[in-house]
Amino acid sequence: MRLTAVDRRAADLGLAPGMALASARAMVPAVKVMAANAPADLRLLEKIADWCDSFTPLVALDAPCGLLLDVTGASHLFDGEQAMLDRLRRALKKQGFAVAGALAGTALAARALARYRDGTVVPPGRDSEAVSTLPVEALDLDPVTVHAFRRAGLKTVGQVAGRRRAELTARFGSGMVFALDTALGRADLPISPRLPLPDYRAERRFAEPVTDEKTMLATLNLLAGRLGKNLEERGEGARALQAVFFRADGSIRRLAVQTGAPTREPALIERLFREKLDALADPLDPGFGFDLIRLEADRTEPCRDEAAALGSETVPQKEIRALVDRLTARFGAHRVLSFEPRDTHIPENAFAAVPAQYARAGRLGWEKMRSAGEAPCRPLRLLAPEPVSLIGGEAFRWRHVTHRIRKLEGPERIAMEWWRDAAPDRDYYRAEDENGRRFWLYREQGLHWFLHGVFA
Amino acid sequence: MSLKDQKIMALRAALAAVEPHGVRVELGVPRLDQALAGGLMRGALHEVFASPSHEASAAGFVAGLCGRLGGPLLWIRQDYAGLECGELTATGLFELGLDPARLLLLRVPDAADALKAASDALTCAALGAVVIEVMGSPKQLDLVAYRRLALAAGESGVTAVLLRQAATSSGIGGAETRWLVRAASSEDDINWGQPAFDVDLQRNRHGPAGHWVIQWSCDDGVFRPTDRGAVVSAPSDRPFAAPVAEASAA
């Protein structure tokens, strides 16, 4: 067993990651050890990354213990770069983390500085100056290369950078030169943010955290209004929206709603979120309050003006769509369904219940089975086939009740689709019992009887 | 005619004038429509009980009512009802003459959610009818719940149909009408006729109770009397009469 991480006091006592646990115990008998749990660490890191979302939307994980934030164009919201960095470090320290941070022109430079010069903010264009005094280890190269630099007497990044590039490339490969260039701010490697940047977003910060649901909904309405204005300029409407609640103590909560058609009406959006909030299994816990609420449009679609759309959609249709959206926000898309025909003769697959928000008028129409004046040929209620036992051809027993057959009609043979799965064919019968109840029974392979449905 | 009778007649006429026009939908069976004072009332709450193990027939009767009411239909059903009585099928509804494209199905975990969803849906005036299918007698279904549904239905003009599976009618409730439905046998032993229902109108706010055997004509979407259905008549002018003995047994 080896040490994977040590805290500052352990490091002062001479312990270091990679050391065998036995030798660490020999050096410091009182050492306190905890089993490493990399997945849990990653989850924690992701949580911190979520929290950092309130500073900038571009956050990338730098596993195992770093985060890269692209704050381009965001620092002025926090009174400048130095103030922003200080605020971030202070807030994380308050949450109990040991933090080191730096701000520089490129991600690699900032990372190198964070490790060796905590709290540095490099003015624009001065990256190479700031980084060149760092030891070569700061470049995060493989140990063999670092060892080679040390043997050659190149102890700082500046000394390495002073060598001729051709020499370096010949000896260490182009990868190392690129790493050096990025660290010095000569080349840039963009970070890859973990969450895609939404096209539209609006947010509101609160000096005094809010705890009241009414205020939260009013805020969402306000944000939806701002978002709607942006959407309108581009002639679009939102199909999927997400509200992000940043709690003062660092935990965040996301709520997503979807709409059946592009929407930008604040009242409608607020209503959907109210339904969602109402139906949450674990209610939104404001704790000490939310200090930032953000609304994002994750998916947008072109949406014509109300005036232009007047002819294409009637008011009742719109009302029903709004109802579907509300019910979906409350119960989930899998519970609000509409029916679509399917091109198969297998009774249980002849129609599909699809989420009503996504339902589209299909090519297929409904096919009538019965001829005029005849009773329905398909049951109103369909069960998973339940085995029944036939008693002498005159009665059958289903769910512990004997039904005497007064009328029997069939068979209607339905062959299974052999190209999909090889199930035996079914011979369907309509049966009416002495009380007038009508059942749909089928026989498989001439001997097993099942009850598949009940007619009205 | 005594003075009292005249007064009653005048009051009845005044009441009939207050009721908005077109608020009742004829079901198609003359004697039944007569008992209902012209037909099934729109924008009201109707309650349909299924006789034990006649759940599908009750659902068929409700589908028929909704077919008469017309317009888009929202069918709210409890998950347990789907397991116990079978899933509602689009093909079956289409065979009964309803358009599955105008049906929305909402599956809810329990009765509380069903009632919540129903009171929301009943505000949407674009719907023709809302069916609420619940199993048993949940405690949420109290007088307040009935009142709420009836009020919501009255305000928007959307008809609410409460379909009660595996429940016995306790006699309470603020529904406009209360029915007990079971399947009826086909007319003869050879032909498969149209779906037939044995309906018992147990409570009727604006008319007498009664008992009929009717069938649903899938081709033209109306209820029709069967030959045997005509035998039953109800005592007139007794809105809350006890259900008449099953005369069709004769």
TrEMBL record, chain A:
Its EC number is 2.7.7.7. It holds the Pfam family IMS_C. It catalyses: DNA(n) + a 2'-deoxyribonucleoside 5'-triphosphate = DNA(n+1) + diphosphate. Keywords: DNA damage. The keyword DNA damage applies. The keyword DNA damage applies. Signal peptide: none annotated. Residues 202-295 form the DNA polymerase Y-family little finger domain. It comes from the Bacteria. Residues 4-113 form the UmuC domain. Poorly processive, error-prone DNA polymerase involved in untargeted mutagenesis. Copies undamaged DNA at stalled replication forks, which arise in vivo from mismatched or misaligned primer ends. These misaligned primers can be extended by PolIV. Exhibits no 3'-5' exonuclease (proofreading) activity. May be involved in translesional synthesis, in conjunction with the beta clamp from PolIII. Monomer. PANTHER family: BLR3025 PROTEIN (PTHR35369:SF2), BLR3025 PROTEIN-RELATED (PTHR35369). This is DNA-directed DNA polymerase.
